Amino acid sequence: MTPERASVSVVVPMRNSAGHVQACLESIRAQTDERVELVGVDNHSSDGTPELVAPLVDRFLSLGPERSAQRNAGARASSGDYLLFVDSDMVLEPNVVSECLEAASADPAGRTIAVIPELSVGTGFWARCKALERSCYVGEETIEAARFFPRAFFFELGGFDEHLPAGPEDWDLHERARLAGAHVVRTSAYIHHDEGALRLRHTLSKKFHYGGSMGAYIRRHPGLARRQLRLIRPAFVRHWRELASEPGVAAGMMFMKSLEFAAGAAGLSLAFARRRRSR
User: Fold this and answer.
1) How many CB atoms sit inside 10 A of residue 189's CB?
2) Which of 9, 14, 43, 121 could form a disulfide with 78 if both were Cys (CB 3.0 to 4.6 A apart)?
3) Residues 83, 22: contact at Cβ < 8 Å?
4) Which residues contact 241 (CB under 8 A, 6 or more apart)?
């Protein structure tokens, strides 16, 4: 499939995303390659997201219960030769789709998957901490995960594991693709992840929720999980100069990471206790 003929379906899961989803959709419509189908999958929002999004996308679904199920349903409802999965709080640089297609077109086996590097943006101190953290992960193979897949390869892999509803599902699919012989490429174009006015309570709640599904991921990929799930990541050591240039923000980042680590561990422990009681 040549870049001139191939098409890309961009699947955007969302829930109560009215405050930021329009910027996401506009960035997808503004791609330099116009052969894009836009699929929105809303998880029963109560803030007007469906009314805002439905007129702006090519296909609109209302489905839950979590992001993995939304993404899989959006993929099944799509028609593109390739699939790109984007969250509703992300804004794409204009060349993301064209770079993904160019890389994929050179692979006759149809197993090229693309990592799109991310930068965080937002307002306030905690958003600055998150932005500094994420900047350290650019090029970090154990942290970044592919978002672009050939359609046939995605379904051959079985899509996202819906038993990993939120958190490690990206890592899991990337690793399964790699083990199945995927050719992994990276774009030079970025995704900008809008953290908004990030609050510490929000990020801790999210990590606690993610921790609930982390046990299944650890059992499936124990070696990889050991490298990923550590407080002091090698990426921080490699980028010590950048951290040292912003000591206050770096200290805040490590404080936030410590609390996130504890929140994730608490979520994991609670899920483990529930699993034992259910036996």
Assistant:
1) 18
2) 9
3) no
4) none
CA distances from 161 to 51, 166, 212 (A): 29, 10, 15
Please state which CATH number belongs to domain 8-198: 3.90.550.10
Q: Which two tokens stand for residue 100?
A: 């993904």
Q: Which of 142, 144, 123, 124 is nearest to 134 (CA)?
A: 144
Res. 229: pLDDT tops 90:
no
Tell me how far apart the alpha carbons of residues 239 and 19 are, in angstroms, rounded to a whole number: 33
Separation between Cα atoms, residue 84 and residue 82, nearest integer Å: 7
- Give pLDDT tens digits for 92-143: 999 999 999 999 988 988 999 999 999 999 999 999 999 999 999 999 999 9
The answer, yes or no, to whether residue 61 has pLDDT greater than 80, is yes
Please report, for residues 63, 81, 88, 110, the alpha-carbon distance to residue 75 in angstroms, rounded to integers and kept in the order given. Answer: 13, 11, 16, 17
**pTM summary value:** 0.93
**Mean pLDDT over each residue of the chain, to the nearest integer:** 93
DSSP state of 172: H
Classified as helix, coil or strand, 145 is coil
Distance CA(267)–CA(211), nearest Å, equals: 4
Strands (E), the chain: 8-14, 36-42, 59-62, 82-85, 90-92, 112-115, 118-123, 148-150, 183-186, 191-197
The predicted pLDDT at position 4 comes to 52
DSSP string, 32-85: SS--EEEEEEE---SSSHHHHHGGGSSEEEE--SSHHHHHHHHHHH---SEEEE
Q: Which two tokens stand for residue 177?
A: 């693709």
Domain ranges of the chain: 8-198
The secondary structure of 237-256 as a DSSP string is HHTHHHHHHSHHHHHHHHHH
